[in-house]
Every structure is written in C-alpha cells, then in structure tokens.
Amino acid sequence: MLTSTEADAYLRRLGFEGAEAPTKDFLFALHRAHVERIPWQTIDIYTGRPVSMALRDSVGLMTNGRSGYCFHLNGAFSALLRTLGYDVAWHRAGVQPIGREAGVNNFHLGLTVAWPDDEGARRYVIDVGLGDMPFEPIPLAYGRYPQGPFTYELKPSAVAEGGWRLEHDPHHGYIGVDFAPEPVSDLALFHPNHAHYSQSPDSPWMNQFLVRQRGERAMNELRGCVWKAWDADGCTTTLVEKKEDWQALLADVFGERFVAYTDDERDSIWARVLKQHEDWKREREEMSGTNAEKPA
After folding, report:
1. Which of 34, 141, 149, 177 could join 128 via S-S bond, C-beta 3.0 to 4.6 A?
2. Which InterPro entries match (predicted)?
3. What is the pTM of this model?
4. Rounded to whole angstroms, how far apart are CA atoms 126 and 90?
C-alpha cells in the first residue's frame, strides 16, 4: 500500500488532484492517463543504471517524473490501484515478438482488476506496461475491441491452459501477449527475468534506446533516432538527427525529460545514440553496395 504522500504524488503525475472513490469510470480514467503520460522505456538499462522492480522503487519512479518498463509500470500501477481500493491480481505473462513462439515465460507482469457490472462479477485486463497497447482496460471476455484507430482481440491462450491471449493490432511490431490464469502473490517470481533484462549482456535492451507511448489516437515509438508514429492513416517514420529536436521530441511526445540525468549525461546519451545510428546507416550503405556489385 502507498502512503498518502505517495498516492497524491502519483495521482498528480497522472493529472488528478486527489483520490476518488473506486469506480469503473475512475479506473478507466487512470489507465488512459497512465499510458498517455508515462512512457515505456529502456533508458535506465541502456545507461547501465537499472532500477530494481521492488514496488517501492517502482512507485518512486512514477512519483519523481521518471518511468520504466513493464515490471516497473504495471508493478507501480497495481500498488496505486490497491491503495485506491481496487481488487488487483498479478499474472505471469509473456510477449510474443514477430518470428518467435508464443509462451508464458514470466518476462511480462500481467494485471487484472475485478469490477462488477450489469452481468455480474467481471475482471478487466489492465496493462500500462506494454508501451503501446491497450489504451483502456479490456473486459476479460473473448472478442474484438476497437480502441481509437486500433483493434485488439482477446481470445483463449493456446499455450496457457485456462489463460487468455491479447492480440496486438496487426499494424505493429509484436504479435500478442499470453497470460496465465492463476494469480500470483509474490513478485519474486519475476526477479530473475528483471535481472536478465536489466543486467545480462544477452538482454535485448542493454544496447537499445527505446521509448514507447500510447495516446488515444496514435502509438509512438522512438528507437534510437528513428521515430515511428502509427495512427488511422498508417505509420509515419521520421529520422531525428539533431540533439535539440531529439530531446524536444522525447519531452513533448513521450513525456521523457531525463530528470535523473545531468546535462553532461544527457549529452553522453545522445552521443551514443547518434553513433549507433550512424554505424547502422553505414552498415546499410555497405550492404547495399555489396549487393549492387553482385552479378545478376
């Protein structure tokens, strides 16, 4: 449970002046505000300054103008919701990237919240830890759910008996997420996975600057210097190769202002990102030149 000071600071970050009685409308408003205002990011892993996934540390990120990735975002949000009086459950889950097999591998922390409606008791899939889906809670009832210009599908999981699968909109970069049905009571189950993501040289995030944000009408991703924005018209890709433009984009679109980093550290992060981008461009040019020299 959060202290009143922590809860008030968290709610202010989300744009609320104070706590309200737990209602379905307030739950939806909190979820929308969280994914709009607090991005999913790998910055602290990228810079070699990972934050533990202990609930107190995760909440501290949210209350101090910072963010994290799924374990931090969903962990902190679950603590806020419980403090506000919601019935929250943690679930083992796994994200399926394109080209990989589906699985519940505990590399994602899933949430559900129980809320009665006209049909009786119902649970909602809650997830502010994916960076780009969903915008609002989704009823734990199989079907298709349009949200703005994107459509998600909830269906039975083929890899977790009795579990469910949330399919991503087909226009984006991973396929879906599978959830195990049984609640878990201890986040220690996820600690080895967090250690892998945040400390292992085999982690996909160690050398990848990546920030994601979901709004009502768009999804945004900044991967190094490449900004992709998905909306009803499709995907727009923009190269951002000036430090001032890059930092302004992070602040204005993603809400990321590097509050835990000094000016020199911000400059160092940008220099590393730009070098990686230039190395990537050079490799592509060399590859194109090699292919052009091959006989037809």
Report:
1. 34
2. Arylamine_N-AcTrfase, Papain-like_cys_pep_sf
3. 0.94
4. 10
